[in-house]
Amino acid sequence: MNKTCTRCGTSKPLFNFGNHPKAADGLQSQCKPCSLERQRITRIGRPCNSCSQPMEDNAKKWARICSACRTKCNSCGKMERIKNQNICASCQAEKDRKRKSPEEVKTRERATRIKTKYKARPALASTLAVFKHCEACGKKASRSGEMHVDHCHDTGKIRGVLCFNCNAALGHIGDSIDRLEMLILYMKEKTLFKDLSDLEKTKHYLDLLIEMEKKYANGN
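^ that's the sequence the OP posted. Answer follows.
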């Protein structure tokens, strides 16, 4: 039993036609060679996902990039890829250098500790790991890991990043806004500083800590 192909008009045996469950006879209307040719023409018109140029004639039907782009580095787009890799040897060496640098290793280890200890998301942990200044007094870190992650001891929620002094101050007063305000009143009444600038500076730091505490309280 034969069937006529709607593309080439040739009558061929049924085994030359692919299956099509929704067709009346369960077979495709075009023969297999014509179907492959139609797919090839459609594929050639499809642009490469990388360079946007038309695909070559011998491109595989599942291919998304042309053969020229398939051999180029995904990072620099110039050098030839390493075998079984997506990047070239130069980009791979640079990637390994950054990954093995002492500063990068310390940052990754610190991010891992933050993520484990405070159950933070990886993106947040990575951001906190590279924070270089105190959110209360504005002090800048002189070395890696000098800043401390501030968190609520009741809920465990991360509030921000503080220097050692600010973080210790909050810990010693038990995160109490009332005690912070009482300390400010105490410093105003007592002559504990050499001049007014020292008093104003300390008051400013305590005001910042109070503002952080109130902001966190309102957020909850």
